Amino acid sequence: MAEMELKWKNTALLVIDMQVVREHDPLGRDVELFRRHLYSVDKPKPTSKGSVGAELVDGLMIKDGDYKLVKTRFSAFFNTHLHSYLQGAGINKLVIIGVQTPNCIRQTVFDAVALDYQTVTVIVDATAAATPDIHIANVVDMANVGVATPTLEEWCKSDE
Question: What's the Cα-to-Cα distance from 43 to each of 23, 24, 39, 131, rounded to whole Å?
Fold first, then answer.
């Protein structure tokens, strides 16, 4: 088995809020309480199905065989069938990239840790937050619970 193929054996790449996307009910019935005001009658619905906010980012496409997960909360595991899907595929290692380190990244990571994934890795230079300080503080918190936090270059050079 080729080195790169071996590296990805039993590993899933989760691209949070770019491949794993938010899509909400147009009336906001499945939105967190603190965001419901964004779905009032007179406002555009920021992440309703079919809205710009629910689309994949430019340049990212779902190919045949890829899996697009729709979520309504920060964690990609909360009230979705992601865990069952990954278990069925024999996945026990996760590599996570995407946006909003303190929100969607962190919640997904902490749920993955609670679900006992063998390895949870956050690529620190392929994730982001509103400020570098917020990003680093959350990366430190995740590292403190056993999450690997390499740069992309470090991860590519590693055996994991």
Answer: 16, 14, 6, 28
| Contact indicator for 124, 149 with CB cutoff of 8 Å | yes
Asked, for residue 59, whether it belongs to a domain, the answer is no
Number of Cβ within 10 Å of residue 98's Cβ equals 22
Return d(Cα 61, Cα 119) in angstroms, integer: 26
Q: What is the count of structural domains for the chain?
A: 1
Q: pLDDT tens digits, the chain, 160 residues: what are they?
A: 466 666 678 888 887 765 566 777 777 777 777 777 777 777 667 676 777 666 776 777 778 887 778 888 889 999 999 999 999 999 999 999 988 899 999 999 999 999 999 999 999 999 999 999 999 999 999 999 999 999 999 998 887 6
Per the structure, the complete domain to which residue 151 belongs is given by 3-19+73-157
Apex CA 116: angle with CA 115 and CA 117, to 5°?
Answer: 100
